[in-house]
Design goal:
Elements lengths: L2 E14 L8 E14 L3 E5 L6 H8 L7 E6 L2 E3 L8 H6 E4 L13 H12 L4 H14 L16 H13 L5 E5 L7 H18 L2 E6 L2 H7 L2 E6 L2 E7 H6 L4 H8 L7 H12 L1
Parallel strand pairs: 3-8, 3-9, 6-7, 7-8
Antiparallel strand pairs: 1-2, 1-4, 4-5, 9-10
Helix pairs in contact: 3-4, 3-5, 4-5, 5-6, 6-10
The structure holds adenosine-5'-triphosphate (ATP).
Length: 275
């Protein structure tokens, strides 16, 4: 199995300037985190609000620079302090955000939202851009007629499908999924998670799945990393971590999590394993 992404000792400090009433301070959001993800696999990064998981997700997609550490994409080292990715490297990693209402420009038609990454990053001719957008619309369970509609005409689940299609337009190797289903109803969550599993199979995608929801993580992850105050306190295969959590924080986290109705995801994964 080939490693698509390797993160070595990633650190991110935020310097918060002082004011008349408050002293300046440094927030240590990520404190030296290392992990790797193999092609076609899903690493879930779990932890409660403020543990640094979104910061890490933004570093992986180079939206946010790291203070120090190394990031290797397909073995090639990226300067993450500068975030100077070549267009080719930038295409390899894409992100889907939590909020399907905020992440799509309300003034753009779906066709323009989908083709924009190709306009910005490639010289793909207009007719090919349109063809690719149409193909991906169908792959995510939408229809060609949706191409000329606006985001407000879609439900939350459909908008997240559009955001997933947009992330796939550049044919990436790795998707960072930052709480991609947390804003959706449970039944819609299951549909979107099943879609992600199908797309992963079809395109051999690698996922970094950021979530606070253990019941979702349990069914989609191959590997799990639990973060606590900027540190990775647990890291291993899903079965190991769930069967035998080592850190007291993980034990507390697991004990406090109700099981959600994710039977369809469980069935989908059982089928995948049996195949
Ligand atoms: N731009 C910033 N400036 C200063 N501090 C920040 C900034 N962004 C994040 N932080 C701090 O870094 C820490 C980690 O934040 P981060 O958003 O990564 O956590 P999280 O686990 O993703 O939480 P959530 O799920 O609520 O988004 C928090 O203490 C947060 O307040």
């Amino acid at each position: 199995m080939s490693v698509i992404l390797e993160a070595r000792n990633i650190v991110r400090d935020y310097h918060v300037p002082g004011s008349f009433l408050k002293k300046a301070k440094t927030v240590h959001a990520v404190k030296g985190v290392s992990f790797s993800v193999e092609k076609g696999k899903t690493l879930a990064i779990v932890g409660e609000s403020g543990c640094g998981k979104s910061t890490l997700g933004r570093i992986l997609t180079l939206i946010d620079p790291a203070t120090s550490g190394d990031l290797l994409i397909e073995g090639k080292k990226i300067d993450i302090a500068k975030g100077d990715l070549t267009p080719e490297m930038r295409r390899k990693v894409q992100i889907v955000f939590q909020n399907p209402y905020g992440s799509l420009n309300p003034r753009q038609k779906i066709g323009d939202i989908l083709t924009e990454p190709l306009v910005i990053n490639t010289k793909t001719p207009a007719d090919e851009r349109r063809d690719r957008a149409m193909t991906l619309l169908k792959k995510v369970g939408l229809e060609e007629k949706h191409y000329n509609r606006y985001p407000h005409m879609f439900s939350g689940g459909q908008r997240q499908r559009i955001a997933i299609a947009r992330a796939l337009m550049l044919n990436p190797k790795l998707l960072v999924l930052d709480e991609p289903v947390s804003a959706l109803d449970l039944s819609v969550q299951a549909q979107v998670l099943n879609l992600l599993a199908d797309l992963q199979d079809e395109f051999q995608l690698t996922y970094v799945f950021i979530s606070h929801d253990l019941s979702v993580v349990r069914y989609i992850a191959d590997e799990v990393m639990v973060m606590y105050f900027g540190e990775a306190v647990e890291y291993g295969s899903r079965d190991e971590v769930f069967a035998d959590p080592k850190h007291s924080y993980t034990k507390t986290l697991f004990a406090a999590t109700p099981r959600a109705d994710v039977e369809s995801i469980r069935a989908r994964l059982a089928k995948k394993k049996a195949a």
